[in-house]
Structure formats: C-alpha cells, structure tokens
Write a structure and sequence with these properties.
This protein is mostly helical and 206 residues long. The chain has 10 helices and no strands. The relative contact order is 0.18.
Length: 206
C-alpha cells in the first residue's frame, strides 16, 4: 500500500509539473488574447491526458500486482489494475486543481495528497467489485468538478505547462534522459515576461 501511495503522489507531482492543463506557444499566441472560454482550447488535450494516464497506470500496475500477489485470480489482478488506473485519474485531476490555484498553501496540497491514502488501499481489496466502483465514483465526481473550471487556469500557467510538456516530449523522443530530468526537475512557478502578461494571466469565463 505504501508503494501504491507513493506512486499516486508521483503521478500527481509529475502531472503538476507538466501542467496538466496546457496550451502550445502558437495556441497561446492566437487564442489567449481572445475573450472566449478557454475550456474550448484546453479540454481536448486534458481529457486525452486523463485517459492516457489512467490506461498507462493500469498497464504498469499489472506486473506489480503479479509480483506482490501471484496467487490471485486473473479477475483480481485486472480489477486491481483498473482501480489503480482510476486512482491515477484522480491524481491528474488533483494536479489540475493545484494548477488552478498555483499559490495555494502547503496545507492545501497536503490535504489533497492525504486523500490519496484510502485510494492507495483500494487495489488490494480485489477481487471485490466495490473498491473499483468506489474509485470510479470518486474519479467521475472529481473530473466533473474540474472540467467546468479549466477556464480559470491562468494564461501564464497554460503556457508554462505547454513549454514543460513540449520539452519533456522532445526529450523522450530523442531518448535524452538528462533533458527529461531537466524538464521535470524545476518546480512549477509561472513567470510573466511579456508586456501583455497581465492580460494573458487573467482567467476567462463566459
């Protein structure tokens, strides 16, 4: 359970450094100055990131489940992996909440991470079906809370996340571990450098 909890924390922290709500530089230059709902711009990529994170976490959890409880049935391993994948979706959605309030206190972050404790124990309760159902309900509820508020993420945060995500993706493509570490090493601190930074940094809701 402790390793599962650390994995969820790692997913949330990585997602926070990558955004998880992002726009590219070209999108930011074209769309951010316009008085439109930013959800239209960031929603597709964020939904794809949620699905990819959940699927990747589920697949990655299967070897761990086999090594820690080899006597389990195939259904138990599958349900445990699916439950952990839903936990990863919760972690990425939690990172989006932190991105929406980048100046949130450490107490706020600790409270969010403390919520991962019961989630980390759910995969070990298989083959019962209720842990997966509970994780699904929690994931749907949190995503439903986050999606309408994506437009409140500041423009500076969207651009920062896009820059870090692009840097990390290029590092993976070129198999450059040093550059990947450099992309993920820095804390997410939005920096406003343009003349119109105050305008870019304003959330837009319509």
């Amino acid at each position: 359970m402790f390793l599962t909890y650390l994995a969820l924390i790692g997913i949330a922290l990585t997602a926070r450094r990558l955004g998880p709500v992002t726009v590219g530089r070209a999108e930011g230059a074209w769309w951010l100055p316009l008085p439109i709902d930013r959800r239209l711009m960031v929603l597709p990529s964020f939904r794809s990131r949620l699905v990819a994170s959940g699927a990747a976490a589920s697949v990655a959890y299967i070897p761990f489940s086999l090594l820690t409880a080899i006597d389990r049935s195939a259904w138990a391993h599958a349900s445990s992996a699916a439950t952990f994948g839903l936990g990863a979706v919760l972690a990425v959605a939690s990172a989006a909440i932190l991105q929406r309030t980048p100046t949130s206190s450490r107490t706020h972050r600790v409270a969010i991470f403390a919520g991962f404790l019961p989630v980390a124990g759910l995969p070990f309760l298989a083959p019962a079906i209720w842990p997966m159902v509970l994780a699904l309900i929690a994931a749907v509820a949190l995503v439903a809370y986050v999606l309408p508020r994506l437009g409140e993420v500041s423009g500076a945060e969207l651009l920062r996340g896009g820059a870090v995500s692009g840097h990390a993706a290029a590092s993976i493509f070129f198999v450059n571990v040093n550059e990947l570490h450099r992309a993920l090493a820095s804390e997410p601190r939005p920096v406003l450098r343009r003349r119109g930074s105050r305008f870019y940094g304003m959330p837009t809701r319509w």
